[in-house]
Amino acid sequence: METILLVVGAYFLLINIAAFAAFAVDKRNAINSRRRIPNAVLLVISAAGGAVGGYIAMRTLRHKTRHPEFAYGLPIIIVVYLAILLLGLLLIGLQDTTEPEITTNSEVFANNIVLPHL
């Protein structure tokens, strides 16, 4: 289970860094009148898990703030991912995590009676 959480955490870290970088490159290209990254690509990166990185870039770089699909879409994507995260944590918490009772050598079972440790 820990490996899965580590892989998922690493994925979200990397996709958010990629989203921030994509927004930054698009902003720089807009300033320098160069070829832009299509909005659809920025939205797909955000929807693939990079919404937090995209939102941070949007606010810090002041880029795409007037586009409703970004101004409203990225926060909605973040809320959806948080809901999925909370649901996943809830389901993990509902799993039976109790360990079976382990008996030691000092316990003696005779006629269904457990003798105390001496």
Describe it.
This protein is mainly alpha-helical. The protein is built from 4 helices and 2 strands; from the N terminus they run ααααββ. The chain has helices spanning 2-31, 39-61, 68-71, 73-94; strands at 109-110, 113-114. The chain has a two-stranded antiparallel ribbon with strand order 1-2. It is elongated.
Quick tags:
118 residues; mainly alpha; two-stranded antiparallel sheet; 67% helix
Q: Please state roughly what percent of the residues sit in beta strands, choosing from under 5%, 5-15%, 15-25%, 25-35%, 35-45% or over 45%.
A: under 5%
- Name the helicity range: 55-70%
Order of helices and strands: HHHHEE
- Largest sheet properties: 2 strands, antiparallel
Q: If helices are DSSP runs of H or I spanning 4 or more residues, what is the number of helices?
A: 4
Radius of gyration: 25 Å
On the 0 to 100 scale, the average pLDDT is 87
CA-to-CA gap between the ends? Answer: 39 Å
Number of strands: 2
- Judged by helices, strands and strand pairing, the structural class is mainly alpha
**Which ranges are low-confidence, i.e. pLDDT below 50, for 5 or more consecutive residues?**
none
Shape: elongated
